[in-house]
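Q: I'm writing up a methods section and want to include an example of the input and output format. Could you take the sequence below and give the corresponding predicted C-alpha cells, formatted cleanly so I can copy it straight into the document?
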Amino acid sequence: MKVLITGAEGFLGKNLRLHLAERKDVHVVCFTRDNGVEELPALLQNVDFVFHLAGVNRPRDLREFVTGNSELTQTLCFAVGAVAEAAGKKVPIVYTSSTQAACDNPYGNSKRDAEDALRGVAVNIGIPVHIFRLPNVFGKWCRPNYNSAVATFCHNIARDIPIQVNDPAAPVTLVYVDDVIERFVQLMDGADTTADKDGFATVVPLYSSTVGEVARQIQSFKESRSTLVTDRVGTGFVRALYSTYVSYLPPESFAYVVPQHADARGVFVEMLKTPDAGQFSFFTAHPGITRGGHYHHSKTEKFLVIKGLARFKFRHMQTGEIHELVTTGEKSEIVETVPGWTHDVTNIGAEEMVVMLWANEVFDRARPDTFACPL
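A: Here is the clean output for your methods example:
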C-alpha cells in the first residue's frame, strides 16, 4: 500500500510515520513545508490512501489560514478527483480538522471550509472521507511553547523552568496521540466507521480534566524521583500523560541517583514505592553476613536472589517449627516471607550476594510492623 502524508513533519505526521514504518506492506510518501502545492498531483501517483494532516494554526498573517488550510485542501481534493476521473481510483482521505471548526473565527472558518471541500468530493465523486475534529492532542514530539499546554508543561517541568497557569479550573478535553494514530491506521486498513458521529470520525478515549490538574499531575511525575513514590501509571490518562512527560526529558536527565544505605553488612537501596502496592528495593550482603532476624504481623515480602548463594531460615513464632532452604542467583526462585514466622537470609557463598526485594507495603517508620527476633 502506498500512502501520502501531508504535514509529514508535524506532530501527528511524525508519530504516524513511525507507526507505518513498522509495517512492511506500507510505503509512505511525504508532503512537507518544503513541497509546493503544485507537486500534489505527482505525489498522488499510485497512492492508495491519504492522511491530510497539514495545516496552519499559528500564522504570521491571517491570510495563511486560507492558503494553509482551505486552499491547500481544495487543491488536494482537485488532485484526488483528477485521479478518480483518469484512473477510476477513489483514494480515501483522513483529514485532521479541529474543534475550532465549530467557531466563527479565522482559524475555525478556514478549517470548516476545508471540511466542506472534502465533503464535496465525497458527495460528487464518491471519495471516502474521514474528518476528525480533534480536541487537544498530546504525546511525544509535540512542540512546546506553541499550541499545546501539555507539551509546554512537560518541557518546562522536566527542565525546572516555571510554568504559568492562568486559570487552574479551566476545563480541557484531551486525546492521546497513540490513540489517534491507532484509529488512523484502522481506517487505512478498512475499519468499520459506524462509530462516526454527526458525520465526523471519532477517537476514543477522550480525557476530561482541568489545566490545573494536568499541571499538578505532571509536577508529581517530576517529584517522584525524589520521593520514589510513583503514580498509577499503568492505565488510562495517567499512563499516557506519564509517557508524554518522560518523552520530554533531556538526555542528561535520563538517569537519576537514589539514596544508598551502606554498613558493614553491605548496601540497601530503595528503588520504587507505590501508593497501594508496596515498594521495591535491593540489598547486598558480604560472605557470611546474615540479614533479617525479625518477623511481621501483616507485612509480606518476596525475595529474589540474583547473585550469590543464600540460605533462608524460618521459625514459627507459636509452634517453634523450623524451615530452611537454599537458593542461588542461577535459579529464578522467589522466596516469600510469611506473617508470624521470623526469618533471616545468610550469604553462604564466596562472593557478594545481591537480592531483590518487594514488600507489599511502603515502609512506615511510625508503624514498621517489623519486630526483632533472631533465629
